[in-house]
TrEMBL record:
<feature type="domain" description="HTH hxlR-type">
    <location>
        <begin position="16"/>
        <end position="121"/>
    </location>
</feature>
<keyword id="KW-0805">Transcription regulation</keyword>
<dbReference type="GO" id="GO:0003677">
    <property type="term" value="F:DNA binding"/>
</dbReference>
<dbReference type="InterPro" id="IPR036388">
    <property type="entry name" value="WH-like_DNA-bd_sf"/>
</dbReference>
<protein>
    <submittedName>
        <fullName>Transcriptional regulator, HxlR family</fullName>
    </submittedName>
</protein>
<dbReference type="Pfam" id="PF01638">
    <property type="entry name" value="HxlR"/>
</dbReference>
<keyword id="KW-0804">Transcription</keyword>
<dbReference type="InterPro" id="IPR002577">
    <property type="entry name" value="HTH_HxlR"/>
</dbReference>
<keyword id="KW-0238">DNA-binding</keyword>
<dbReference type="InterPro" id="IPR036390">
    <property type="entry name" value="WH_DNA-bd_sf"/>
</dbReference>
């Protein structure tokens, strides 16, 4: 009986550690102040140019937006499309199919945020 409890605790601890590691990986990729905001705007707007994207996200500088877009592109969340045939050259950003796999996570976070805000208002 004791061995069973020890084994169960070991399995649970391993699962907890695995979950913590997975969440840490996810936060590393989409964490920070801007990445989820960029992903949400891209998902809602489709193809969008850099300046339009910057206007849609209050407070983000061009330099930070550029760096965040590069990170998101490296991780497969954003695709940069260059229309070189146009003058001047037009660059658009679009969310990838992989980025859209975050939709349920974003919707859950959004709902949780609304619930949390209501709870805080009720408590005060």
């Amino acid at each position: 009986m004791e061995n069973s409890a020890v084994l169960e605790k070991h399995v649970f601890t391993g699962k907890c550690s695995e979950n913590l590691s997975s969440v840490e990986d996810a936060i590393y990729v989409i964490g920070g102040k801007w990445k989820l905001k960029i992903i949400i705007v891209l998902q809602e707007n489709g193809n969008i140019r850099f300046n339009e994207l910057q206007r849609a996200i209050n407070g983000i500088s061009a330099r930070v937006l550029s760096n965040e877009l590069k990170d998101l592109e490296l991780n497969g969340f954003v695709k940069r499309v260059v229309h070189a045939e146009q003058t001047p050259v037009v660059v658009e950003y679009i969310s990838t199919d992989y980025s859209r796999t975050l939709k349920p996570v974003i919707m859950s976070l959004s709902e949780w945020g609304r619930t949390h805000k209501r709870k805080l208002k009720e408590d005060f």
